[in-house]
Design brief:
- Helix 2 packs parallel to helix 4 (52-63) and helix 9 crosses helix 10.
- This protein is 45% helix and 15% strand.
- It has helices at residues 3-11, 18-29, 35-48, 52-63, 91-101, 120-124, 136-146, 159-169, 177-190, 211-227, 249-260, 267-282, 289-301, 304-315, 321-324, 351-363, 402-411; strands at residues 79-83, 106-110, 148-152, 195-202, 231-238, 246-247, 334-339, 344-349, 377-380, 387-388, 393-399, 416-419, 429-433.
Length: 434
């Protein structure tokens, strides 16, 4: 086979065979195919698309570019969750301990912040001492002992994805459903899971702005998971406003603690109960999703999920003193309070720009080499449909950068819109796809 012929075949809209895709992935990861040729293939796939068989072949080739973990020595059904990313989305920190407390094994390989969205690894690493760079033996030991483990992608797991994603990022080929699917599923399947719960976001703060695109991505992910004989359920969820009220790394850990301790109930709590309950169901610890949700609620109310979180943090080297006494965490240098200048109802939130505002405060990266400030972020106190009076505190800004906090303060009023008329709250879970 000739690489140029394969690029031409895809360019002309024809489907590639399994061995042809394997040649492309193997050749690129072994540096036998240069960036400029693989970029041409990516653009051809982006423009012409790939069918479900091609997507499965691509996922398989990327999966076996590295090691695939065998967790057979660890008893129990292994279930993970994947979210496509959003502002304030800290569900992994909450649902992993809930599912583990129910007896489900949860092997999580998570990512860092991307653009306006926060990353689970960055949030966990805001806990002093918390290690996300575990060896495979440590990963297995903690999973067996605690029932859950949360780490980053290692150089041995799906290395093709790491190389290809870096190239997609600079060749305008990120927004391709087959390429997104193979990227997500190659990493998830490498974990050694038996099943997967998918949280596909849609709305102005999501990568998939339109619901139809989110559904198409969910369908592609489900089709690929089933091709590998994995149990899977997908939720299409709303990202037209932040999830929960806290945005920023330590702030999101803090809100997770409040949720796990039963001290706060909001849309974040509601979604976590649904996702964790589904994990418990797929993990065969409940006969139905509804029963799984009831178990999740009980584990939250009796404190077992919170204790499991402490156990996981301790096992991965985190200082549990800050989990038990979060008020002792270091404070940022600057704080600004944003008050409402009107009476009315919150009509809309520019969630993308709110996420970017948190990044500017120091909660994310503008450039790859930027250092994250774990203390930086935003507390956004209201939800769409809430009544707000003049003088009410809409948000609080936190940063060590005075110039950034003043700039975000000046443009904050452009991020929210109010109405004189009462507005109903948006539906959190738009669709469930089995």
């Amino acid at each position: 086979m000739n690489v140029v012929d394969l690029i031409r075949k895809k360019r002309d809209g024809k489907a590639l065979e399994k061995d042809e895709i394997e040649l492309l992935i193997s050749g690129y990861t072994k540096n036998k195919i240069p960036d400029y040729q693989f970029s041409a293939f990516l653009m051809s796939a982006y423009l012409r698309g790939m069918n479900s068989k091609e997507t499965s072949y691509l996922t398989n080739a990327m999966l076996y570019s590295g090691i695939v973990l065998n967790l057979d020595s660890i008893p129990g059904v292994k279930i993970d969750k994947h979210s496509t990313g959003g502002v304030g989305d800290k569900t992994s920190l909450i649902i992993a301990p809930i599912a583990a407390a129910a007896g489900v094994k949860v092997p999580m390989i998570s990512g860092r912040g991307l653009g306006h969205t926060g990353g689970t690894l960055d949030k966990l690493e805001s806990i002093p001492g918390f290690r996300t760079n575990l060896s495979i033996s440590e990963y297995k030991r903690i999973l067996n002992k605690c029932g859950a483990v949360l780490i980053g992608q290692t150089k041995d797991i799906a290395p093709a994805d790491k190389m290809i994603y870096a190239l997609r990022d600079v060749t305008a080929t990120v927004e391709s459903i087959p390429l997104i699917t193979s990227s997500i599923m190659s990493k998830k399947l490498a974990e050694g899971i038996d099943g997967l719960v998918l949280d596909v976001k849609t709305g102005n703060g999501a990568f998939m702005k339109k619901e139809k695109d989110a559904v198409a991505l969910a369908d592609s992910l489900i089709s690929t998971a089933k091709a590998f004989n994995k149990k899977v359920i997908a939720f299409i969820t709303n990202m037209d406003q932040p999830l929960g009220n806290y945005i920023g790394n330590w702030l999101e850990v803090y809100e997770s603690i409040l949720i796990l301790k039963g001290e706060k109930r909001n849309d974040l709590y509601e979604l976590c109960i649904t996702l964790a309950g589904t994990m418990i169901f797929l993990g065969e610890k409940a006969k139905t999703q509804e029963q799984g949700e009831s178990i999740a609620e009980e584990l939250m109310s009796n404190g077992k999920a919170y204790q499991k979180f402490i156990e996981i943090v301790n096992a991965q080297g985190g200082d549990i003193g800050f989990i038990k006494n979060p008020e002792k965490y270091p404070k940022p240098s600057y704080k600004k309070v944003i008050k409402s200048s009107v009476n009315g109802y919150l009509k809309s939130v520019n969630t993308f720009e709110l996420g970017m505002a948190a990044v500017e405060l120091g909660a994310g990266r503008m450039k790859k080499e930027d250092k994250i400030d774990p203390k930086a972020g935003i507390i956004f106190n209201y939800k769409i449909g809430d009544k707000i009076k003049e003088g009410d505190v809409i948000a609080e800004l936190f940063s060590d950068k005075k110039k950034s906090i003043l700039h975000v303060e000046k443009r904050f009023n452009n991020l929210v819109e109010f109405s004189d008329k009462k507005i109903g709250p948006p539906k959190l879970i738009k669709k469930i796809i089995n």
